[in-house]
Amino acid sequence: MMKDNKLSKFANIDGRTLFFNIYSKIDKDNEDFNYVYDWFVNSTYLDLGNPNFERFINSRVSLKTLSDENYKKELLKFIKKFDFEIEGIKTIPDSIEVMKSNNGIIDIEIIHKGENKELKSLPFYLESNGTRKMFQLFDFFMDALKNGMVLFVDELDAKLYPLLIRYIIIYSIIVKQIKAMDS
Fold first, then answer.
1. What domain count does the chain have?
2. Could you tell me which of 3, 38, 96, 131 has the fewest CB atoms within 10 Å of its CB?
3. Residue 110, domain member (yes or no)
4. 33 domain residue, yes or no
5. Sheet with 107-113, edge to edge strand ranges
6. Does a cis peptide bond (omega within 30 degrees of 0) precede residue 93?
7. What is the pLDDT of residues 67-87, one digit of tens each?
8. What would the DSSP string read from start to end of 114-176?
């Protein structure tokens, strides 16, 4: 016969019961449950199949592209991995101060190497869906990689080319290995 303890009332729970349903009824001071709960809470979830989130992410521009040259270099390096014709990123205006006086509007142009190696700017909205999506997801990817977080992206395969997804996975493995060597 089962001993009378806090968990005995959960003995008949089947495999389809959600963890958080059980957790909400158990002692909140349980370290094992708190560890799992914190893992989920500190993970990021992006739903690319949600039209509202899709609109939000498509209209979003990180202010770091205006204020942080290292960020801009990392973003360019990241984007060049899957579109080697890209040579630069141009923001109009080119500073946060000017952007504030411009009602917060930022235009982005991607600089490409054209014919005869001539550089040409292309408005961001004319870029391919894959390039725009990678540009807009870069913050989320880098935040997860640099902070050792988990990033769940629903519908990623429907929104990006398979080679881009492969690159993201390889890139994350390399970053993880570099972090392990630095430790």
1. 1
2. 3
3. yes
4. no
5. 86-92, 107-113, 119-123
6. yes
7. 788 888 888 988 887 778 899
8. -GGG-EEEEEGGGS-HHHHHHHHHHHHHHHHHHHT--EEEETHHHHS-HHHHHHHHHHHHHHH
